[in-house]
Amino acid sequence: MSRAGRRGTRLTSVWRLVRARWLRRAGSALRWWRSSLQVRVLTITLVIGLVALGLVFAYVGQRTAEGLFKERLAQVLAESARSTSQAQDTFTYSTAATPAEAQQLLSDVTTAQRTGGSGSRDVFLLRAPGQTTSMSGGAAVTAPELVGLISPELKAALTDGKQHWQSVGRPTSADAAADGTGAPVLDAPGAIGPVVPAVVVGQEVSVPVVGTYQMFFLYPLDAEQRRLDFLLGTLALAAGALVLLLAATTWLVTRQTVSPVRRAAQVAERLANGHLTERLPERGEDEMATLARSFNEMAASLQDQIRRLEDLSALQRRFVSDVSHELRTPLTTVRMAGEMIYAARDSFEPAVKRSAELLSTQLDRFEDLLADLLEISRFDAGAATLDAEGRDVREVVLRVVDNVAPLAARKGSWLAIDLPESRAVADIDPRRVERICRNLLVNAIEHAEGSDVEVRVAADASAVAVVVRDRGIGMTPDQVAHVFDRFWRADPARARTTGGTGLGLAIAMEDARLHGGWLEAWGRPGRGASFRLTLPRRAGMTLTSSPLDLVPAEPERAPATPSVRAPGTDPAALPQWGAEPDRQEVP
Amino acid sequence: MKGRVLVVDDDTALAEMIGIVLRSEGFEPAFCEDGDSALGAFRSTQPDLVLLDLMLPGKDGYEVCRQIRAESGVPIVMLTAKSDTVDVVLGLEAGADDYISKPFKPKELVARVRARLRRSDEPAPEHLAIGDLTIDVPGHRVARDGEPISLTPLEFDLLVALARKPWQVFTREVLLEKVWGYRHAADTRLVNVHVQRLRSKIEHDPEKPEIVVTVRGVGYKAGATTT
Fold first, then answer.
1. φ/ψ of residue A106, rounded to 5
2. With an 8 Å Cβ cutoff, are B103 and A335 in contact?
3. What is the band of B119 on the pLDDT scale with cuts at 50, 70, 90?
4. B122 pLDDT above the threshold of 90
């Protein structure tokens, strides 16, 4: 029981193995089938060719066999009719008077007739069924073992006195039908040796003294069978050669079609990789040459298009540069005039004085907006370049913190700075990274609503990260998705106090991208927002992870702090090193 | 402290406005409206400083800058509306000492002009050595083996700043403050370009500098004194 079970499991595991191997093989064959047009065409051609040849083969074989048989049958029938009448003549003119003499006569006739025809034949003289005469001369046969081949139906049919025939299978081994049961040998072909087709022809003859006899001739058709076999063999050989020829032709023809297509695919790939001058050779006038020509025309038009786009891009860059010059020069004059007027404002009437003040502040705003617009258009034109150098990110962050500290103080926010002990050097463009950090910090302070703003810097082997976190109004996930959009505002109704241009975060994003870095945002309404800048340490490296988490591990920490103190009033309660709002230093 | 300033700018409104500002600060402005006549105006006015717009009709600002530099070490401050790296670096390489991006405030302009006109009036005769060079600070002369080397005032100031404290590594920011007079962090490309220019004049092989040495990731320092 247990052994049977073991064997069962072993069998199933073997079966699984076999099945897996088969599936794999089938899979690879399927892939081959799918990936190669040539294989597919060849296979289909071969299958169709084989089926057609099989049908032809069957038809020709059938027709030939039929023709051969009919021809031989006619010959056999004529010959046996002649032999039968000859035997009848012998019987008619014989002088036999006793059964013994009749018996002798019968055996003489069979022996004589055996060799009388074309080829070898067996002769049987059997008593007709239903004889009433008591006298019997017995039977005379040349092959007693084959008597069983003569069926009772044939015997019964002969009583009308005409010639009848029947197809039989003749065993070739001697002891084949010797059991004497009389059963047709055809019924049990498995028990005996090879069977050759044969024809039995019979007719009644009347023999003196002993009455009516039935005379049978057994003609084997093995010669015809051999001819048929030879013919079919030759035909099969020719068919095989034809199939091979067909396969070779198909292979060659498909290769002629497929190889230009393959070449076109290769060239298309090179084009896609930026080798715009790549072309296909154009030879001849056929469809392949047309393909090559159309392909080359397409490539030329693509190249043309790309060149035009490049020209356009250069033109746009030029335009940005020109616009920047054209706009900035008058702005400079206006700006200086405004400053002069502003400096003299105390000598004006109150209304003119206020106008001078408004002029001055709005000129600042206009200048910022123009600067940001030009920066963005420079990114769009692809004209922004990275002047990377190895810099300590901590220093950049500290400088920014110094710059925004007065703003934080005005807004009543505390700045908490957490810097790593060791240098966090990365290949950065300090001007751009400084701008990113300033944008993030100003944005955080603006939205912190007087709560703390934390700045954290960390570095690992491959990246440096800066996280700026506030606990102000926060953002919904929907707002987070738009926060880097140009001129996008979380709440249009919100009073604009520090007067950002609406482009700060969009520019920060472009700056981060230029470094190959990440800039990501997180926010929850009421819980504040978090921005993370991650920069690769070496220019050109691809980022895979960041040394800092973007989403703060809030739930563990949150309950403890607000209950103890009002947020933003006690620096000691901050988890990180806290700083005076107007002065920061490295701890 | 007061001096003559040549303003080369094709925008007459801006030139006039600059003139008003400079005059109110006690400078004496002179004007030129195109590139072709700039050199002539420079020769006739003999200014102490040139304010040069980069985009000019006729010869462009870079060319004018090169021509003036070829015959004088007078401080040149570019006025540029193009803060793109290439434009600024091209201007600095053409020989400008400093640049101001438009739009600028009057105070900024005056501060930059003052910084470039400031003369180190240390009275004490001071002789410094850096590499195989000798520097006569009050005389504004640099020589190698008695052969004088011609430097612009800015290049001279840069070299003196490094030579005075040969044990110290100067970051680019510190050099900007000491030599250019920037109090806030500014464009460190100024330092890079001028160090290159200085090296091309004083080093035996500017590709392998021995007098002004780069300290990677930090800044520059003076090379060892060999004399």
1. -55, -50
2. yes
3. low
4. no
Cβ pairs A/B, distance under 8 A: 66
Q: In the structure, what pLDDT confidence band is assigned to residue A116 with cuts at 50, 70 and 90? A: low
What are residue A172's phi and psi, to 5 degrees?
-95, -25
Mean pLDDT of A123-128: 82
Q: What distance in Å separates the CA atoms of residue A258 and residue A40, rounded to the nearest whole number? A: 12
The enclosing H or E element of A410 equals helix A393-411
Which residues neighbour A321 within 8 Å (Cβ) at sequence distance 6 or greater? B82, B84, B87
CB of A361 within 8 Å of a chain B CB? The answer is: no
Domain boundary, last residue among B67, B82, B117: B117
In the predicted model, is pLDDT for residue A177 greater than 60? no
Q: CB–CB of A337 and B187 under 8 A? A: no
* pLDDT given for residue B22 in this prediction: 93
When the candidates are 3.40.50.720, 3.20.20.110, 3.30.565.10, 3.20.20.100, the CATH number that belongs to A387-573 is 3.30.565.10
Is B158 within the bounds of a domain? yes
- Residue of A336, A383, A430 lying closest to B21 (CB–CB): A336
Q: How many residues does chain A have?
A: 587
Beta-sheet strand order (sheet of B212-215): B170-171, B219-222, B212-215
pLDDT band at A534; cut points 50, 70, 90: very high
Chain B residues inside the 8 Å CB shell of A340: 20-21, 24, 106
Q: What is the pLDDT at residue A184?
A: 41
Distance CA(B164)–CA(A12), nearest Å, equals 89
Q: Residue A283 corresponds to which amino acid? A: R
B93 and B56 housed in the same domain: yes
Domain ranges of chain A: 96-224, 279-384, 387-573
Tell me the pairing of strands B141-144 and B170-171. unpaired
DSSP-derived secondary structure for A165-184: EEEEEEE-STTTTTT-----
Question: Where residue B142 sits, what CATH number does that domain have?
Answer: 1.10.10.10
Please tell me the distance from the alpha carbon of residue A469 to that of residue A120, in angstroms, as a whole number: 114
Provide the sign of the torsion angle of the four alpha carbons B29, B34, B36, B37, taken in this order. Answer: negative
What proportions of chain A, in percent to the nearest 5, are helix, strand and coil? 55, 15, 30
Residues B131, B156, single domain; the answer is: yes
- Under 8 Å between Cβ of B161 and B170: yes
Chain A residues within 8 A of B15 when measuring between CB atoms: none
Considering the domain architecture, whether residues B106 and B168 belong to the same structural domain is answered as no
Q: Which residues of B touch A329 (CB under 8 A)?
A: 11, 14, 81, 102
Domain extent at residue B58: 4-117
**Looking at residue B166, what is its pLDDT?**
83
Beta strands in A287-366 (DSSP E): none
